[in-house]
Design goal:
The chain is α/β, with parallel strands linked by helices. Helices cover about 35% and strands about 25% of the residues. Bound molecules: zinc ion.
Amino acid sequence: MSENSQDCLPTTHTISVEKIATAKLPTQIGQFKIAGYRSLTSNEEFVVLYKGEMQKNFPTLVRIHSQCLTGDVFGSIKCDCGLQLRKAMELIEEAGRGAIVYQQQEGRGIGIINKIRAYALQDEGADTVEANEELGFVVDAREYQQCAEILFDLGLCRVRVMSNNPDKIKALEKAGLKVVERVPIEVDSQEPAAHYLRTKKKKLGHLFEFND
Ligand SMILES: [Zn+2]
């Protein structure tokens, strides 16, 4: 593989996000920095939690984390998002560098209210995919292009992606980042998440090991 930094340019040739502010963020897991980005093409906002030096040719841990209010904030065990976020922060802390782009697209882009509507259908027996379809939403409405641009803007090129979602990995590659490794995030999930995780694996093509 070439070490030439010329080989790592955004395929769109422009960056359509703007960094607005950066600050220190001490956390329970360690010292991080937090940056706020705005899209130049929509009203979407992004948050990046990162640590250490961002170097183009140093294979750096990254994650695109899609906001999950129920899992990230309330500790829901219907899914494993909160545990995955924590694990990603721990891996970055251990490595001494890395970045998490926190994408505020709740419920795969359908929004928190619709996600609660979908949960209500799940209470009646639907799985996560069936519930979204019944509500008339596409299964996954997320776009990752600008998340990749943020990683470029931070100064990264060669990345080790902490994800079980092949769509995110493909999106980063399509945007021009060099994905040198997929770092699986395996977390212990509790029983109510089992049905959700089984669906994610079977219907959405996620890659993690799951014994069902
Ligand atoms: Zn979740």
